[in-house]
Amino acid sequence: MNSPATVLARPHAAERHPLPGTQPDDATRKEPGMSLLDIKNLSVRFGDAHAVPVVDGLDLSVNEGEVLAIVGESGSGKSVTMMALMGLVEAPGIVTADRLCFDGTDMLRLKGRQRRHIVGKDLAMIFQDPMTALNPSFTVGYQIEEVLHQHLGLRGRAARQRALELLERVEIPGAASRLNAYPHQLSGGMSQRVAIAMAIAAEPKLLIADEPTTALDVTIQAQIMDLLLDLQRDHNMGLVLITHDLAVVAETANRVCVMYAGEAVELGEVPRLFDAPTHPYTEALLKAIPEHSQGARRLATLPGIVPGRYDRPQGCLLSPRCPYATDHCRAQRPSLDPHPFGAVRCFYPLNLPEVA
Ligand SMILES: Nc1ncnc2c1ncn2[C@@H]1O[C@H](COP(=O)(O)OP(=O)(O)OP(=O)(O)O)[C@@H](O)[C@H]1O
Ligand SMILES: [Mg+2]
User: Fold this and answer.
1) pLDDT per position as a tens digit, 212-271
2) How far apart are CA 347 and CA 356, in angstroms?
3) What are the pocket residues of ligand 1 if the criterion is a CB atom closer than 6 Å to any ligand atom?
4) Three-state secondary-structure class, residue 114
5) Pairing of strands 105-106, 342-344
6) pLDDT per residue over 178-213, tens digit each?
7) What are the DSSP E strand ranges found in 136-254?
8) Coil, strand or helix at 335
9) Measuring CA to CA, how many Å separate 94 from each of 48, 65, 84, 97, 289?
10) I want to staple 77 with a disulfide (CB 3.0 to 4.6 A). Which of 55, 86, 317, 336 is the partner?
11) 3-state class (DSSP) for residue 265
């Protein structure tokens, strides 16, 4: 996998001023009714085409201005899904999809330089560790100005002024003096604010936040989440929020995708999914929310662990851990089936009205 910092790496001059015919138009296929992010049947394998997928047949969509949370235990494929979208899965990783469209552009068909016209501009990402986005060798101001130059063509005083406004927008105290600071002179929370400023510099349509607060002090976590949601609302951005903190999801997300061992096991809207989960795994996650869960880093889980490459059960992937599992569950793999309130991958879904 590339370093996440590659997303924000300075492009070659020829890439900043693309040659005719190198724009991503040839991969554009926006259709009426298509969501801002439209993923169909995404799979990611490491090794060869026969390796067990770490993301398996995933469908996902995000509309403009929508907050989608992706939850699930460690190793369930949340980050790899987003890395695949950003083009950051490298050999021996194999990404396949029927559709991997962002804003009508097929991200699978993009070449590196075409991708860099979109990633960091209309599609931006922030990571758990802000230091992955910041280059220790350059000042904060320089790095923000680079994004502004690369994606908006701003230079000199205009770029400086905009960088200052961005630092003020992400509520960095003494913003003017911070422009000349190096990343090591900032606290973790301040660094994440700078990373957020860089991510929103070109006003992205979709921001992906992969556990943006887990590396931070508990007191700072809520402030950073508040800031992210303010920005999301101000700019009507789509937001994909990957988190272990279901309390945050309940407060912030419109919809939730629950992942388990590379598969989506439940899709649903907030608050219904919290009131009436339909998958036993979602139910277990919700039961594990501590009473004072603000800042909880890891969900308490069902007994056992997510199956890996060599211990995948034949039937439902949750069956060895599921309190409701039957012989049928242990023998057959359920599909993700729509229901009136979302979708669920379970032979015996919970909290659904009986179908006559
Ligand atoms: N470069 C790689 N090579 C081989 N396997 C990988 C690679 N990157 C990720 N994986 C595997 O893919 C699976 C999904 O990983 P991923 O990082 O997406 O999990 P996650 O849901 O983001 O977990 P966490 O909550 O810990 O961040 C894991 O089993 C991981 O070991
Ligand atoms: Mg992850």
Assistant:
1) 998 899 889 999 999 999 999 999 999 999 998 898 999 999 999 999 999 999 999 999
2) 17
3) 1, 46, 54, 72, 74-80, 93
4) helix
5) unpaired
6) 999 999 999 999 999 999 999 999 999 999 999 999
7) 206-210, 238-242
8) coil
9) 7, 30, 9, 10, 35
10) 55
11) strand
